[in-house]
Amino acid sequence: MQRLQMITKAPGSPQGCAAELLEAVPTVMRFIRAQMRGHRGSNLSVPQFRTLLFLRRRRNASLSALAGHLGLSLPAASRLVDGLIKRNLVARRIPQDNRRLVALSLRACGQRTVRAAQRATERRLAEVVTELPAGQRAAIQRALQTLREQFQSVAAREESVRGGK
Question: Of the candidates 9, 17, 30, 164, which lies 20 to 30 Å from 76 by C-alpha distance?
Answer without folding.
Answer: 30
